[in-house]
From TrEMBL, chain B:
<dbReference type="InterPro" id="IPR052157">
    <property type="entry name" value="BCAA_transport_permease"/>
</dbReference>
<feature type="transmembrane region" description="Helical">
    <location>
        <begin position="12"/>
        <end position="30"/>
    </location>
</feature>
<feature type="transmembrane region" description="Helical">
    <location>
        <begin position="179"/>
        <end position="206"/>
    </location>
</feature>
<feature type="transmembrane region" description="Helical">
    <location>
        <begin position="94"/>
        <end position="113"/>
    </location>
</feature>
<comment type="similarity">
    <text>Belongs to the binding-protein-dependent transport system permease family. LivHM subfamily.</text>
</comment>
<keyword id="KW-0472">Membrane</keyword>
<feature type="transmembrane region" description="Helical">
    <location>
        <begin position="133"/>
        <end position="158"/>
    </location>
</feature>
<keyword id="KW-0029">Amino-acid transport</keyword>
<keyword id="KW-1133">Transmembrane helix</keyword>
<feature type="transmembrane region" description="Helical">
    <location>
        <begin position="264"/>
        <end position="283"/>
    </location>
</feature>
<feature type="transmembrane region" description="Helical">
    <location>
        <begin position="60"/>
        <end position="82"/>
    </location>
</feature>
<dbReference type="InterPro" id="IPR001851">
    <property type="entry name" value="ABC_transp_permease"/>
</dbReference>
<dbReference type="GO" id="GO:0006865">
    <property type="term" value="P:amino acid transport"/>
</dbReference>
<keyword id="KW-1003">Cell membrane</keyword>
<keyword id="KW-0812">Transmembrane</keyword>
<dbReference type="Pfam" id="PF02653">
    <property type="entry name" value="BPD_transp_2"/>
</dbReference>
<dbReference type="GO" id="GO:0005886">
    <property type="term" value="C:plasma membrane"/>
</dbReference>
């Protein structure tokens, strides 16, 4: 089932992009820019997760590891080398290569088995990375983390805003092309009925590996941007909460739609921002993670296709009603 | 020699604690192919409620009974409201049990605060035994005894009773059992509650063992239990018992000699099993593919 956002024509996307590009001229409050930058970064992350969950139908519970690999690669490079754009590219490439390797190996080990194995193995390996980051103090400074300096163009909030916005647009287009390609079509087929796809002659392991590596690479990119946005890194990037963020964003936005993932990232980050503000007056909101957890369960049980599916259902219903009304008028007339 | 025996006792007792967690997981999976990611949440609830009741009442027995009761109550809620609605859909089951895990471990922080809590040993289990200079901590022996007794009880339940027969038959061929007129859903609820009770008991026993409890440990031990379930073979109780001992003992020795690699060792074991025999050591039915 395809969500509404799939059918949103290109000019809608362009209009949103244009609005976002003009936004800093309308409202240049610093905290708003930071929040939006954060949303863009997590939108890339959520889209990468959706390639797995929504488009291929495989569940990963360790997606944070690619985010963390990307973040640490960039951070460690900046910690040891000068803060130049060229070094950023180096860190990015290292992170991407590492992520691709790790996702390939995990996929090779578990993707030929039932979906449970991939979920468990990714969870276990991501925890292994968390321990590694805590133990390898010489490189990562353990749980305390470290700060580092970044190129000037990243330091300026407005220019970084545009960089992340551009990144979201480019990643969205690339992933869109990927999902619309023949490979993407096979992935969709696998998510609907793996045996049938196999029977048609598609080696599902091969295609699932492609999806796994693509998702890992995209997540690594978002991690690198995240590290740069904070100019600080610690082992939190490997925590299970990061994976849960991706899960929540894709679930709430609507799985199987890239635009849904972006919307989900926006909703979750806004919610988190305002809930943590509320927490200053009402201490109960300090534990907002549990609110997100309940929200997640409610969405899973009540709206399995997320916001995108919900909107689609409403518009479909309206269309049906209009159609029925038309028919009724015709018959009575 | 002393070190060897101590490590062995450590490893076996940790292994048996992991087994309590893994037994529920593997039975639940075997019967309904539900992989319960919230199992670690029940474990950590067992640990916290056990520690809390022990602190309030000073009775270790009461603490264990209370923890098991709370674990079963939570397990019932979990089964009734989260797992039943998505019955038969693997992807949504995986997703929703993770949500359950999140809520369970976060609610721990609401009840007991975000900081780790210290737990004392009950008086009659403090201290240690001494044989020829080899010192063995009493509580570890206690855990081993309880773990072995529970394993025996589970084995008897599965092999000697009517309901055990139904469970084993259900693990083998669920549709057939259903066709014979046995209420598989009711059976599943029973197994789920049993698993929840074992997980909570494992948590309650672990709390004084490690001396400190924290909300994140549910996830840590759940991961160990998953590794054990895969190595042992999903759905196989004996496999889980064997794999628990392997993981526990290997972990104890690695933690002593090469501490940094102890988690990596489990991953290595897991990778080998997945490559060579994805059904696990004792998984009979081809449940892996």
């Amino acid at each position: 089932m395809r969500g509404l956002f799939h059918k949103v024509p290109l000019y809608w996307g362009l209009a949103i992009l244009l609005f976002m590009m003009l936004f800093p001229f309308v409202n240049d409050s610093r905290s708003m820019l930071i929040l939006l930058t954060q949303i863009f970064i997590f939108a890339i992350f959520a889209m990468s997760f959706d390639i797995l969950l929504g488009y291929t139908g495989i569940v990963s519970f360790g997606h944070c590891m690619f985010f963390g690999i990307g973040a640490y690669s960039t951070a460690i490079i900046f910690n040891h080398l000068e803060a130049t754009l060229f070094n950023f590219i180096i860190g990015l490439v290292i992170g991407i290569i590492l992520s691709a390797l790790v996702s390939y190996i995990i996929g090779l080990l578990s993707l030929r088995l039932k979906s449970h194995f991939y979920a468990m193995l990714t969870l276990a390996v991501s925890q292994l990375f968390l321990v590694l980051a805590e133990k390898w103090r010489g490189l990562t400074h353990g749980g305390d983390g470290f700060t580092f300096s970044v190129p000037d163009v990243f330091k300026d909030r407005t220019s970084f805003y545009y960089i992340t916005l551009l990144s979201v647009a480019v990643v969205f287009l690339l992933l869109k092309l990927f999902t619309e390609s023949s490979t993407g079509k096979v992935l969709k087929a696998i998510s609907q009925n793996e045996y049938r796809a196999e029977a048609l002659g598609y080696k599902s392991l091969h295609y699932k590996l492609i999806a796994s590596v693509t998702a890992g690479v995209a997540a690594s990119f978002s991690g690198a941007l995240y590290a740069v946005s904070l100019r600080f890194i610690n082992t939190n990037v490997f925590s299970i909460e990061v994976t849960l963020d991706a899960l929540l964003m894709t679930m709430i936005g609507g799985i199987g739609t890239l635009a849904g993932a972006i919307a989900g990232a926006g909703i979750i980050e806004f919610l988190r921002h305002y809930l943590s503000e509320l927490a200053m007056t009402y201490p109960i909101f300090e534990r907002w993670t549990i609110i997100l957890g309940f929200l997640y369960i409610v969405v899973l049980l009540g709206f399995p296709s997320g916001l995108a599916g919900f909107i689609k259902r409403i518009t479909l219903n309206n269309k049906m009603k209009a159609k029925k009304k038309g028919e009724l008028e015709r018959t009575t007339a | 020699m002393e070190v060897f025996i101590n490590l062995l006792v450590n490893g076996v007792s940790t292994g048996l604690l992991i087994f309590l967690l893994a037994a529920g997981l593997t039975l639940i999976f075997g019967l309904m192919s539900v992989l319960n990611f919230a199992h670690g949440g029940l474990f950590v609830w067992g640990a916290f409620s056990g520690a809390w009741i022990f602190k309030e009442t000073n009775s270790f027995l009461l603490a264990i009974v209370g923890a098991v009761g709370i674990g079963m109550a939570l397990g019932w809620v979990l089964e009734r409201f989260l797992i039943r609605p998505v019955y038969g859909n693997h992807v949504r089951q995986l997703l929703i049990t993770l949500g359950g895990m999140l809520v369970l471990s976060e609610s721990i922080k609401i009840f007991w605060g975000p900081n780790p809590i210290r737990v004392n040993l009950p008086g009659w289990l403090e201290g240690s035994y001494q044989f020829d200079g080899i010192i063995i901590i009493k509580y570890r022996v206690f855990v081993i005894v309880v773990g072995l007794l529970l394993y025996m009880a589970l084995w008897l339940l599965l092999s000697r009773t009517q309901i055990g027969l139904m469970i084993r038959a259900g693990v083998m061929d669920k549709e057939m059992v259903q066709a014979l007129g046995i209420n598989v859903k009711g059976l599943f609820t029973f197994v789920f509650l049993l698993g929840a009770a074992l997980a909570a008991l494992g948590g309650a026993l672990l709390a004084p063992y490690s001396g400190v409890v924290f909300a994140e440990m549910g996830m840590q031990y759940a991961i160990l239990a998953f590794i054990v379930v895969i190595i042992g073979g999903m759905g196989s109780l004996q496999g889980s018992a064997l794999a628990s001992l392997i993981v526990g003992v290997a972990g104890a020795f690695m933690a002593y000699y090469i501490p940094d690699l102890s988690l990596a060792l489990n991953m290595l074991l897991l990778a080998i099993v997945l490559l060579v025999k994805p059904t696990g050591l004792m998984g009979e039915k081809g449940s892996a593919v």
